[in-house]
């Protein structure tokens, strides 16, 4: 029994609508066109709640630039602030359009952070080092190839061309956000498209170094992601790793969640294929001395 019934804040989360006006892939179980109906249902549910924001964890579309024209207007019905992350499928557009994707969905930057109710929400760009975001001829493609080949040589399950990694500059920015939040006594919720834990074929190429980073900060309470449509969950170093199930799966059963954030826990209310979870949170204290000594 919990004493507090009213959350500090509440937010909505969606993963992988992956819309496209194409026939379903019955082998993979993906019903791309049906995501419009499922998303409309989710937005109606969200509009009936008092939410601080709604975040879509990437793969808004499956392919083709014009797919944005069909799905983004649905988000205009949402009465809450909205945040987008991008996934690998969001870059399956014409090469000359690659640099325009962030602006098309109204993202102010590829990665960002904001504070609410004593929490810092950090939204990362997991596509930074990848085979699909840089245009042809971009030197970042060579970096991605080297990273992927090294993982393949090591026999890593996540050595897949549809995964990606953070660049070094963004990793340093992420550490700075965690450090500043720790000094302020804020709990941190990180959100990305790609999983980093538990070990899985869908995980980021640099999941090990991200895990190591989070383990150094006791204020990183949760990481929410998509990409693996089956969903997943793990707990490591006091951080809850929640992979939200993909909305695109199945002909008519949706998948999304509302998260109630309390001082000592997060209550995940799943809809459709997404399940309910209670994520227990440890108290976080400022560690100014420890921060200064690093």
Question: What can be said about this structure in brief?
Answer:
With 294 residues, the chain is an alpha/beta fold. The chain has helices spanning 35-47, 66-75, 101-104, 140-153, 168-183, 207-215, 288-293, and strands at residues 9-14, 53-57, 82-85, 112-116, 119-123, 187-191, 220-225, 232-236, 239-243, 255-261, 265-272, 277-280.
Overview of this structure, please?
With 294 residues, the protein is an alpha/beta fold. The chain has a single domain (9-281), classed as Purple Acid Phosphatase, chain A, domain 2, CATH 3.60.21.10. 24% of the residues lie in helices and 22% in strands. It has seven helices and twelve strands. The strands form two sheets. A six-stranded mixed β-sheet has the order 3-2-1-10-11-12, covered by helices on one side. Strands 4-5-6-7-9-8 form a six-stranded mixed β-sheet, covered by helices on one side. Helix 1 (35-47) links the parallel strand 1 (9-14) and strand 2.
SS-derived structural category: alpha/beta
Largest sheet: 6 strands, mixed
End-to-end distance, in Å?
39 Å
Q: What integer is the average pLDDT?
A: 94
Strand order of the largest sheet: 3-2-1-10-11-12
> How many individual domains?
1
What is the name of the CATH topology? Purple Acid Phosphatase, chain A, domain 2
What is the C-level CATH assignment?
Alpha Beta
Please give the count of helices: 7
Strand content range: 15-25%
Q: What is the molecular shape?
A: globular
- The helix content is 10-25%
CATH architecture group name:
4-Layer Sandwich
Rg over CA atoms, rounded to whole Å, is 18 Å
- Series of secondary-structure elements, N-terminal to C-terminal: EHEHEHEEHHEHEEEEEEH
């Amino acid at each position: 029994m919990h004493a507090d019934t009213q959350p500090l804040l509440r937010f909505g989360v969606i993963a992988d609508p992956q819309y496209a006006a194409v026939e379903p892939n019955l082998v993979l179980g993906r019903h791309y066109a049906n995501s419009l109906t499922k998303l409309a249902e989710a937005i109606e549910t969200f509009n009936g709640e008092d939410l601080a924001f709604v975040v879509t964890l990437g793969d808004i579309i499956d392919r083709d630039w014009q797919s944005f024209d069909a799905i983004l207007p649905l988000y205009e019905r949402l009465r809450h602030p909205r945040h987008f992350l991008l996934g690998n499928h969001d870059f399956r557009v014409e090469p000359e359009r690659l640099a325009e994707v962030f602006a098309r969905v109204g993202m102010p930057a590829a990665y960002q952070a904001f504070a609410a109710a004593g929490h810092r929400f950090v939204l990362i760009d997991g596509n930074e080092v990848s085979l699909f975001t840089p245009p042809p001829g971009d030197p970042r493609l060579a970096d991605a190839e080297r990273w992927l080949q090294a993982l393949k040589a090591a026999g890593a399950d996540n050595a897949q061309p549809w995964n990606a990694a953070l660049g070094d500059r963004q990793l340093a920015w992420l550490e700075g956000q965690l450090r500043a939040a720790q000094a302020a006594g804020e709990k941190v919720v990180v959100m990305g498209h790609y999983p980093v834990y538990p070990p899985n074929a869908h995980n980021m190429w640099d999941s090990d170094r991200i895990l190591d980073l989070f383990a150094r900060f006791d204020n990183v309470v949760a990481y929410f992601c998509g990409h693996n449509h089956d969903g997943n969950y793990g707990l490591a170093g006091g951080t809850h790793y929640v992979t939200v199930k993909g909305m695109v799966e199945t002909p008519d059963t949706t998948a999304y969640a509302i998260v109630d954030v309390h001082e000592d826990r997060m209550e995940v209310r799943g809809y459709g294929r997404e399940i309910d979870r209670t994520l227990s949170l440890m108290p976080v204290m400022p560690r100014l001395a420890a921060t200064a000594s690093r």
